[in-house]
Amino acid sequence: MIDTFKILFHQGKQYIPDVTKAKVPGIFRGRPVISNEKVDLQALVGICPTGAISEGATTVAGSVGSNCAKSSLPAQTASEGLSIDLGKCLFCGECERCFPRKIHFTQDYKIATNNRNNLIVREGEDTPIHFDDTLRRPEISRLFRHSLKLRQVSAAGDNSCEWELGATGNVNFDMGRFGIEFVASPRHADGIVITGPISKNMSRALQICYDAVPAPKIIVLAGTDAISGGIFSCSVAENDHICADMLNNDVCSGSRELDRSFLETHTVDLFLPGNPAHPLTIINGLLELTRF
Amino acid sequence: MDTLRMHNGDSVAFSTIPVMDYHCFSSLIVEKLSSGTASVRHCVNYFGYPLDEELRLVIAIADDAMHDIEVFSCRVPECAAIQSVAVQVPALSRFEREISENHNITFEGHPWMKPLRTTPDDYPFYSIDDEELHEVGVGPIHAGVIEPGHFRFICSGEKVLNLEIMLGYQHRGIERLFLKKKRLIERSVLAESIAGDTAVSHSVAFASLYESLCGFKASEAALWARTLASELERIAIHTGDLSAICGDVAYQLGSAVYGRLRTPIINFMQQWCGNRLGKSCIRPFYTPYPFTAEIAQILLTTLTVYERDFVEMGKKISHFPSVLSRLEHTGIVTLDQVSEIGAVGMTARASGLERDIRSSHPYLLYGNIDHRPILKHHGDVYSRTQIRKEEVLQSVGYIRDMLENVPDFGIETAITRGVAGAAADKADTSANAAAAVGANSAAVNLGHAVAPGMFAISLAEGWRGEICHCAITDSQGEIALYKIKDPSFHNWTALELAVRGNEISDFPICNKSFNLSYCGHDL
Ligand code: SF4
């Protein structure tokens, strides 16, 4: 008994008192800031493994659709200069390492949003990633602000986002204090959290699971792989027609083992970028989605 | 017939690998791997490589006593029907299934020829026609926040008679992507995504292999950083697993304490390289995040606090009857079984089979460490719990020793910055342009060229066990084949065997005690 008390004493209080203001230790690659410094843009763009960096007018390809980049979402044209799409960024740090004066990843972990377009960070901007109020569904905050039960579906996730989703419930992050928890059955859930680029082999199970969740329900994409397919998707240069062909002949640069059609027919309520998404990104994203 | 003998991390001309006919090939395999010698020799990889309208079957057998790897091959016609050796050498069963699935080869007499990474509706599950038995299907989506796979139990009442595990849901075609994505950074992030919980060890295997193909020798400092990161990964995941094991026997205190103890270790990884799982920590040719004296101090302090509480909790568990009664004699895999199925790593060692790449085929700095693998002999959940506790403390010891001599990363970083900077300076010959045409240019590879016509192999001991990466390059120096073998590839069979005769309610704790990778298996 005494030893149990000793363990408890050493354990102490471990929870982070305020998860909205906590600081992350050391280097953390959160929201990037792109300076106006002149650099060799072509070289910089060429560094990125997933084509997350673009030059000039940026358009958000509706990369949630197929596994090939495809323009099903309204294209958004932005100002001149460089931009980084956090929906594609794997936070590998290469761009910052090679061009430290041009790109700097800040410790800002609040990078979740409900609008795919808001994940694009443009040159010279140093403003938080924000939610789009026009896309908010009133029933989400009305029904889920004090209790949100989620069913996680790993669809070819590499177990890193699954790991961090699990960590949100540990004694440090303690997401349960907000009434947000992962449950065993979709029948007990208010929504699903998808991780991974969605393999063909998981596409049907994903659909069945989603259908089993009673409405109203939400869809959350956790991690860059889920949002855009990450390293498994095709390069930006290939447009959808070429890609369809390419997929058949397997000359497409992406994986032909994905089936992201689920995302073409369903609206996503929350995007949580990261590789994997950090527990603080996840918790703050879910709080912002449900408590406004 | 002679075999080619190579060492961990070597690359050799592909043409030097002996070629024989299938009959000689299969008899040689049986001779090398038949049960009497199984404890010294085991198959680390066996795969097909389409070449000149034929299929080349290549096998790599590690010899733990000689500390080297024997490689030999054979030619078979496309879509051939050949005699399986899975009955004589059950450890090859899964390899033959993979070759059959990928290359349309028929293995005659294979006792268990089923899909490996495809998930057909009519998957031929083993079944027993008996009114007193029932089947339980679980998955692909499981109750927890974990990856997908389907488990089919045949039970008599509460007792499990048979478990069959159907995988493949996570298949992303990652080996093929290693060929398609030609830039170094693309391949590096792919290596980190093979199994996110083993990002460091898979990256180590990838980096050694890639550097060996380019004839590059990593600096002492880089090897030091890789060794340290590997051991930190082991500590972090083992600690998390101990938390999960306690959670599954409803011992809240253990679950909370181990869960909390993992946090400072992975947060340290983030302080070092910016990622809690160590993604981006290890890259071929350079060390992106050098280890500084300041970082070393942080790690020392972290470990001091960690170790005290870790030891304290460990003592409690090993004397706590209600925990012990769930862990002891549960989910037993015997020494004979692990030897027969070719189990590796912690799973093998918990059943008394000494199999640890760190000591048998040393890489990185393990040659200097004089690593002595920890062995347990009961093969039950408790052995797999104890081995984690002891391996964690062993790794903490290694890290403490390493921290007494932190190498100087200064020069190396300057060089890599120089290379990256130079590549970036050459404005129009940017990496992008090169990648677009698929050229294996220096800019894409940080100035290093992959040698043509080579075969390379690299082994690493991840926290689960032995990881094996192999590559073959074509005459242009392009990677023509990339093969990855995660330890889970062997060890899933151990889980199937472990639950036999146990109550189905003990399945979760058996499963946790192995904590195998779905994505690492499915690729
Ligand atoms: S950190 Fe993101 S934007 Fe930068 S190179 Fe890596 S993936 Fe691309």
Can you describe this structure?
The complex is a heterodimer of chains A (292) and B (523). Chain A has 292 residues and is α/β, with parallel strands linked by helices. Chain A has one domain: Rossmann fold (3-Layer(aba) Sandwich). Chain A is built from ten helices and ten strands. In chain A, strands 7-6-8-9-10 form a five-stranded parallel sheet. The N and C termini of chain A lie far apart (45 Å). About 10% of the residues of chain A have low confidence. Helix content of chain B is 44%, strand content 17%. In chain B, the strands form four sheets. In chain B, strands 1, 3, 4, 5 and 6 form a five-stranded mixed sheet that branches. Chain B has a four-stranded antiparallel sheet with strand order 2-12-13-14. In chain B, strands 9-10-11 form a three-stranded antiparallel sheet. Chain B has two domains: 105 residues, NADH:ubiquinone oxidoreductase Nqo5 subunit (Beta Polymerase, domain 2); 285 residues, Cytochrome-c3 Hydrogenase, chain B, CATH 1.10.645.10. Chain B starts with a strand and ends with a helix. Chain B is an alpha+beta fold and 523 residues long. Chain B has 19 helices and 14 strands. The chains are: A alpha/beta (292), B alpha+beta (523). At the A-B interface, helix 1, helix 2, helix 3, strand 6 and helix 5 of A face helix 3, helix 4, helix 7, helix 8 and helix 15 of B. Bound molecules: iron/sulfur cluster (SF4). The site of iron/sulfur cluster has 14 residues of chain A, from helix 3.
